[in-house]
Design goal:
mainly alpha, ABC transporter involved in vitamin B12 uptake, BtuC, two-stranded antiparallel ribbon, 14 helices, 2 strands, 72% helix, globular
């Protein structure tokens, strides 16, 4: 896969640098007084070959623990979540040719939320190598939902976009109703269920990052290989077919990869809305609709945005933490209205 121009290469390099600086900067924001330089030194001391040249003897053990065990993994998880949601949003908007589509348009959020709810009310603590039952059931719920939506929408060998969207909306509402029913029946678990559905990155540590990072990154790389096909599909499916693009297979591959990627991160973070909707729009406005730049740029800007939103969530009324999904909704709601007003004009 090749990026079109040198200008676009420079844009990606700049975004990568901003992301790296954001990771260092937002890792130090909090009640403990730790500098950005100390943050990078602590992280560098954990990296093979680099740690031989880094001296952190003047940094207290408590500060080292705060950065390496609490803030740094939280920031990295935020980058992973934001990048996944944003890239999946850009890809789904491309195959569905619907600017209002995001990773949840085909029921991913509702399926994950119902799966998590079942895990919470069942009381199962962990499953499969100490994996959280909430994460496991949310992951399975999301995958099953997309499988059902796809098969409902499929007409022989084709999957009409409008039918897929309607099936996703209908099934999503049905699953949400079931989740609400369970919340009423198991009212003692209602607060925990609601908190999970608002999204949260706190208290996860390194374990979930180590479990999901490799499959999520591989999914991102694979989605980028479909950038050319997505560009051609913007001209219409008939035109794309005449140019040699198998539109139905492309839809399937992107739906599977996007759903897998999003369900992995959602199973850890909970439901975080609007990121997959607003970030691709911002990138499209700034850099254009070419998916060769749109997909990677969406991932990078999505990661930066999620880290910013999570930092606001954990510091704005410290020591109380707000679910990060509330912050993204506060950003996303007004921006969504702005998009509607802009399209109207």
């Amino acid at each position: 896969m090749k990026i079109c121009t040198n200008k676009e290469r420079y844009v990606l390099v700049i975004l990568i640098l901003i992301l790296i600086l954001s990771i260092g900067f937002f890792s130090v924001i909090g009640t403990a007084n730790i500098t950005v330089a100390d943050s990078f030194r602590i992280v560098g001391s954990k990296i093979p070959r680099i740690r031989d040249f880094v001296d952190i003897s003047d940094i207290t053990e408590s500060h080292q623990t705060i950065i390496w065990s609490i803030r740094f993994p939280r920031v990295l998880l935020g980058v992973l979540v934001g990048a996944s949601l944003s890239m999946a949003g850009a890809a789904f908007q491309g195959i569905l040719k619907n600017p209002m589509a995001d990773p949840y348009v085909i029921g991913i959020s509702s399926g994950a939320a119902l799966g998590a709810t079942i895990a919470i009310v069942s009381g199962i603590k962990s499953i499969f190598n100490s994996m959280s039952s909430i994460s496991f059931f949310a992951f399975i719920g999301a995958l099953i939902t997309v499988f059902v939506v796809y098969n409902i929408a499929r007409i022989k060998t084709k999957v009409p976009v409008s039918t897929l969207l309607l099936a996703g909306i209908a099934l999503g509402q049905f699953l949400t109703a079931i989740m609400s029913f369970l919340m009423v029946i198991y009212s003692k678990d209602m607060a925990k269920i609601i908190y999970w559905t608002m999204g949260n990155l706190g208290g996860k540590g390194w374990d979930p990052i180590l479990k999901i990072s490799i499959p999520v990154i591989i999914s991102m790389i694979l989605i980028n290989f479909f950038a050319r096909d997505l560009n051609i599909m913007l001209m219409g499916e008939e035109t794309a077919k005449s140019l040699g693009v198998d539109t139905e297979k492309t839809k399937i591959y992107i739906l599977v990869l996007g759903t897998f990627m999003v369900s992995m991160v959602v199973s850890i973070s909970g439901i975080i809305g609007f990121v997959g909707l607003i970030i691709p729009h911002i990138v499209r406005i700034l850099l254009g609709p070419d998916h060769r730049i749109l997909l990677p740029a969406s991932a990078l800007i999505g990661g930066i945005f999620m880290v910013l939103a999570d930092t606001i969530a954990r510091t704005i009324i410290s020591p109380v933490e707000i679910p990060v999904g509330i912050i993204t909704a506060l950003f996303g709601g007004p921006f969504f209205l702005y998009l509607l007003r802009r399209s109207k004009r």
